[in-house]
Design goal:
The protein is built from eight helices and eight strands, in the order E-H-E-H-E-H-E-H-E-E-H-H-E-H-E-H.
Length: 251
């Protein structure tokens, strides 16, 4: 069974940024794992007031949200706005997850995201994906395909997609997934307000209508991507990426 690892800083970002791709892969028999690194968000502006067990409840909701997309959830405990991509202990913990899963594909944050947690997590996971040799006594594993998922449009600075994934048949599942975040109604409201508009805009680039997610390549360690074959007509390379040969004869 091939494995896809989706990395997000905060608990809901795998579901929002790449939930459609994750759901499609899960439906085709892939093992899909969501890794969230920021497990302490108690000083967020949106933190729910008057709830003593807020973090525990949000973590439980995050596990359920992932389950509704056919994914597993791994939650680490780094503190928001204190994550350092160059801290060896951070890299080691990500490398341990990668080495244990040995994913065929890893999706993470765009390195130029305007949110500091997103940016640091994206850089750290990218570095860890290139080799897990920093784990003592273990052979290094290099993730063959590392891609960047797109965050909110106002955060993904200079994001130029290499390919799109049509997610028309995923929208109900995505909505159902986000409904699991009951403690954070602001998250659900943001999903309802932004995701449909953003996915419509992305689909308009390559299809006459519908919804799509956008992705960019960060690292490519094999001759051809596996995604065109797996996704079929729901995959479309961008104009520039078509000329790279990474997608074979895919259009």
């Amino acid at each position: 069974m091939p494995t896809a690892l989706m990395v997000g800083a905060h608990n809901e970002e795998c579901e929002y940024n790449c939930g459609g791709l994750a759901y499609k892969l899960s439906c085709q028999g892939w093992r899909v794992v969501f890794l969230n690194l920021i497990g302490d968000c108690s000083h967020w502006p949106m933190w729910p007031e008057g709830i003593s067990d807020g973090q525990e409840r949000i973590n439980q909701e995050a596990v359920e949200a992932a389950r509704r997309l056919g994914a597993e959830k791994v939650l680490l405990d780094f503190k928001s706005h204190h994550f350092d991509a160059h801290d060896p202990s951070c890299l080691k913990r990500i490398a341990e997850v990668i080495n244990g899963l040995k994913p065929e594909i890893m999706a993470t944050h765009w390195p130029q995201d305007t949110n500091c947690d997103h940016r640091e997590v994206g850089q750290a996971s990218f570095n860890a994906a290139q080799t897990t040799a920093l784990l003592p006594g273990r052979a290094g594993y290099v993730v063959p395909e590392v891609i960047a998922h797109e965050g909110y449009l106002y955060q993904s600075y200079h994001f130029t997609p290499d390919f799109y994934v049509r997610i028309d048949d995923c929208m109900d599942a995505l909505h159902h997934s986000f409904e699991a975040f009951e403690t954070y109604p602001a998250i659900v409201e943001e999903f309802e307000r932004i995701k449909p508009i953003q996915s419509l805009a992305r689909a308009a680039h390559v299809w006459s209508g519908g919804h799509a997610e956008a992705y960019a390549f960060l690292r490519f360690g094999r001759r051809l991507s596996v995604l065109p074959e797996v996704l079929g007509e729901d995959f479309c390379a961008s104009g520039f990426a078509r000329g790279t040969g990474l997608f074979g004869g895919s259009d």
